[in-house]
Amino acid sequence: MTVSQFIRNLPKAELHVHIEGTFEPELMLAIARRNGISLPFSTVDETRAAYRFSNLQDFLDIYYQGVSALQTEKDFRDLTCAYFDRVAVQNVRHAEIFFDPQAHTARGIPFATVCRGIVRGLKYAQQTHGITSRLIMCFLRHLDEMDAFATLEQAMPFQRAIYGVGLDSGEAGNPPGKFARVFAAARAAGFRCVAHAGEEGPSDYVEEAVDLLGVQRIDHGNRALEDPALTARLAELGMPLTVCPLSNHMLGVVGALDQHPLLAMLEAGLSVTLNSDDPAYFGGYVNDNYQAMQDHLAVDDATLARIAQNSFHASFLEPQRRAELLAELDAYLRAGASA
């Protein structure tokens, strides 16, 4: 996909990206070899050929196979650094990164190994690229409440590193309300809260995430549009939606990119951001998602700039850093207008 110069240079934040989902085949195979891990594929071409999904569960099956290569603190650092090297040239100025500790602790990898490795990568991003970040720990919703509580307890010594909690994995049959008590405990401990809802799950899941989990952002949220009253409520609340078009298409949430509901979301007054979700698997990083919406929905540069502005407002940035980045965006737009 050819990305326009305007999109390439547009300052933006990414608010919905799973660090394990940035595991490119080249790095996956290199780390697997380093750790003596056998994967079901042995070449880059075989790995990419496996990235064919018809639904969320098909994706998760291959996703967890890849994750098995990650063993050491260095592995998690290398994975995180590789993501930031890629998005630095896309002018991502701030990123809020999901990670799935239960996918690793269930394999016997210590929580501390995972967290410290990723944090080393976040520090690298700040020092090398000037990109600020937040780390968000997700609970796997296909597991039970007790497992989530145990994970929250493991996270407590790392509160200076982990800014928020989220909810991901297979949505079908796993409503947000299943984790209401866990999120209440997380909020009481000072964590910010987000949750995946309304991707494959119904609009009711979006409402539960707001009312029962107390979230400050909805990840995906596409199916909220099926409930006009809920849509109006989200708009009134200014509830941000972290939308991932290429992911939606790859997982069959939308049949084609020209059918994506982004325009309907904007017309409804929703605070929409564009993000990559699991870019190594879904065929594109954040700029590719911006470009896809321009190519398939004719979203103009001014609207994309408004979406980038939304990304800074929807972030968990400190006010001073948010103001700096909004000023950077404004300067970029003014320079373009005067060019």
Write up this protein.
- The protein is of the alpha/beta class.
- It is built from 17 helices and eight strands.
- The protein has helices at 5-9, 25-35, 44-50, 56-67, 73-88, 101-105, 111-129, 145-155, 180-188, 203-211, 228-237, 245-250, 262-267, 279-282, 286-297, 301-314, 319-338, and strands at 12-18, 92-99, 132-140, 164-168, 192-197, 217-220, 240-243, 271-274.
- The chain has an eight-stranded parallel β-sheet.
- Strand 5 (192-197), helix 10 (203-211) and strand 6 form a beta-alpha-beta unit.
- Helix 5 packs parallel to helix 7.
- The longest helix is centred in the last third of the chain and has 20 residues, at 319-338.
- The chain is globular.
What is this structure's SSE topology?
Blueprint: H1 5-9, E1 12-18, H2 25-35, H3 44-50, H4 56-67, H5 73-88, E2 92-99, H6 101-105, H7 111-129, E3 132-140, H8 145-155, E4 164-168, H9 180-188, E5 192-197, H10 203-211, E6 217-220, H11 228-237, E7 240-243, H12 245-250, H13 262-267, E8 271-274, H14 279-282, H15 286-297, H16 301-314, H17 319-338
Parallel strand pairs: 1-2, 2-3, 3-4, 4-5, 5-6, 6-7, 7-8
**Largest sheet strand order:** 1-2-3-4-5-6-7-8
What best-fitting shape do the alpha-carbon axes yield?
globular
Proportion in β-strands? 5-15%
- Structural class, from secondary structure content? alpha/beta
> Mean pLDDT score, rounded?
95
- Give me the count of strands: 8
Stretches where pLDDT falls below 50 for ≥5 residues?
Answer: none
Tell me the quaternary state: single chain
- Give a short account of the largest sheet: 8 strands, parallel
Helix content: 40-55%
**Beginning-to-end CA distance, first to last residue:** 26 Å
SSE pattern: HEHHHHEHHEHEHEHEHEHHEHHHH
Radius of gyration: 19 Å
> Number of DSSP helices?
17
